[in-house]
Structure formats: structure tokens, C-alpha cells
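<instruction>
Derive C-alpha cells from the sequence
<data>
Labelled lines for chain and fold
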Amino acid sequence: MSTQSRLRTAKPSTGAGRCLRPAITVAILLATLLALGCSGAGEDVRVTLCKDIVAVRTGAEPVFEPADVRTRGYQGAEVRLAYQVGESPGRATCFYAHDAVEDTADQLANPLNAYATSPERVVITGETLSRPALAEAVKQAMLKQGRHLVEQAGDMARKAVTQ
């Protein structure tokens, strides 16, 4: 029997196939969310991570002024933040090491792509975080980002189901 005749004579979807449709829809939604999250639109990941580290360390949701990003070639990049927690102002700087092997066109379009995505040093309100404190802050910031992504995916899935 040829492939074409087998395809034409395939039986309609069974109950199991119908049960998989919602799971497939959710998988497509999650893939779309992940693609949107990695599309490069919006704030640079280094700025976002620096803000999340500050939020983790302050135990609050600071109100940030626009970030001041400075690239210094092979000497690294700095993300400087000014923020407010209640009535208290604060400043933070995250330092990122140069991490590119060679110059690329992508780096011309976005110079921060030549730098590591995790800071090598962070100073918050004059205090330099120790290596263990920095590692824990990065871990907590990444967990915060993961929870936020899961919440967004859940919201999108709920909206898709109700439509």
C-alpha cells in the first residue's frame, strides 16, 4: 500500500487524540512565551538582572530611574541604577566582564552583547557584595524571574482557555 493511500485511509482522531489537543495548545503558548522572552525586545538582560538583584537585596520592589549603561571596551561594562524604596533613595552598580572572543555585527547593534550576562561585582548603596552574597543574590533574582515567567504563562493560558 502506498504512503498516499495510507494517509487517505487514516481513521479519525480517537479520544486520546482529542485529550492531547489542550496540552498541545498549552505547549504552543509556552513556546511562544519563551520566544517572546528571548526575542531581544525591551530591556537588556544585564539591566533586568541588576534591577532584580537590587530588589532581592532590598526585600522590596524599588522604583528605578532609567539605567545608565557604560561600556568600557575590554575593561568591562557598568549598569548604574538610581532607585527609590519608599522615601529612601539608593544607588547600585553592577559590573560585567568583557566576554567576547571576537567583534561581531551583533555587538555593533548592541554593545552589551560583548559582556557576560551575570555580574562579576555588585555595589549597592556603597556596599560591595561578597562573592557568596553575590552568588545568592543572582540565584534569588533568577528564581524571581522564573516565577514571573511562569505567572505570565499561566495568565496567557487562562486567557486562551476562556476565549
